[in-house]
Amino acid sequence: MQTNEKTIDETRNTDNMLHFKEGIGWKACYDDEKNIYTAKTSWRGDYHLYEIDAEIYNRLGEPGVYSDELIHTGRHLYYSQDNPIGPPTDMVIDENYATLCPWAEIQTSGHVMPNELTDIAVELLENEETRKHRKRKSRMEASI
Q1: What is the mean pLDDT of residues 77-102?
Q2: DSSP 63-119
Q3: Is 34 exposed, middle or buried, given 0-12, 13-18 or 19+ CB atoms closer than 10 A?
Q4: Would the CA dihedral through 55, 23, 19, 105 be positive or negative?
Q5: Which of 4, 78, 80, 108 is most exposed by smallest CB count within 10 Å?
Q6: Furthest CA-CA distance within the chain
């Protein structure tokens, strides 16, 4: 993962009152009208959409901040995978993802995972993130 403090680009779309921040492999948006923050990350065939909060949005692009990892702490909305690891797959976690992120050019493989499998996959991913977090925390405590 890369820090993106030197590639931050903050723009504003005055027609829709959308505010953007962008760096390598990520883009975030604040929608004044809806009062929501959303973000996308993409890297090597993986594409994610998230709903984030103001605190995350404000920290994006700061020196020493891994913006993509910070975005991944938000609420996952959508995931599309098209890489050599497995078959192209789209996972719809929140059916309103396109409405929440109208600014995003959404990557799709055309192969949507059934809802039952999505629920199982989300649970597995959450358990994996919890495991990674505990492992990082214990490494940090050991180094103190």
Answers
A1: 87
A2: TT--HHHHHTTSEEEEEEE-STTS--EEEESSTTHHHH-TTS-----S-BPPHHHHH
A3: middle
A4: negative
A5: 108
A6: 51
Residue 1 CB coordination number (10 Å): 11
Whether 97 and 143 have beta carbons less than 8 Å apart is answered as no
Place of tokens 């492999």: 25
Residue type present at position 19: H
Question: Cα(33)–Cα(52) distance, rounded to whole angstroms?
Answer: 16
Q: Using CA atoms, how far apart are residues 122 and 89, in angstroms rounded to an integer?
A: 14
First to last CA, the chain: 23
List the beta bridge partners of residue 78.
49, 92
pLDDT for the residue numbered 70 = 93
Distance of CA 73 to the CA centre of its chain: 8
Element (H, E) at 120: helix 115-143
pLDDT for 90 = 87
The predicted model scores a pTM of 0.73
Length of the chain, in residues? 144
Q: What whole-number distance in Å separates Cα of residue 90 and Cα of residue 97?
A: 12
The residue behind tokens 């920290």 is: 59
